[in-house]
Amino acid sequence: xxxxxxxxxxxxxxxxxxxxxxxxxxxxxxxxxxxxxxxxxxxxxxxxxxxxxxxxxxxxxxxxxxxxxxxxxxxxxxxxxxxxxxxxxxxxxxxxxxxxxxxxxxxxxxxxxxxxxxxxxxxxxxxxxxxxxxxxxxxxxxxxxxxxxxxxxxxxxxxxxxxxxxxxxxxxxxxxxxxxxxxxxxxxxxxxxxxxxxxxxxxxxxxxxxxxxxxxxxxxxxxxxxxxxxxxxxxxxxxxxxxxxxxxxxxx
Length: 252
What we know:
The strands form two sheets. The protein has a six-stranded parallel sheet with strand order 7-6-5-9-8-10. The protein is elongated.
């Protein structure tokens, strides 16, 4: 049975201050939960699932019996952040990533400046995973990294690609020799612009673009050319195109 205390705890994790207070976050649904259970058991705080799901997944639940809470469908609805609850919800310990200097110097890093839509942020995280981008760096104005919607949108990418939240200007100043590409409306056509296999790729806020202080740090402004009449691209769509062009020239 789900206690009132546990119910309040889980529902509070929709807010950043409580995720930070308890150092845990939510991942839910069969697909993402199975991936976590197969590859990242050490970070599991607790498991809330229907009895049928527990029975169907006994093999991957071995060794976690003390963390399993079997609940009813009605109880799952009360703690779920999905419009349609999906059999299982996990509470995970927030990972403590260590920024890797070698990766910053030798590989491409996505830098997100004010991406505020959780769905966009999670999708960009997933895109980074798809294209072999080793790290993501988010400004303090981005959506919360471990909010339920962001984690759901990553489709498990958070297990493989570290993401950091920090002030961007000190970071960019720390690596003066690295190229800083910025996706803007008026820049060089990304398909013909000279690119490198390392450096920072900056993507800006959905409506305002890259902030002026970060814009001033760019060493090259790039753009995805338009062939129609749409005013702009969705931030995650733009991220996918930009990463694809870089990877076409510099495969992993």
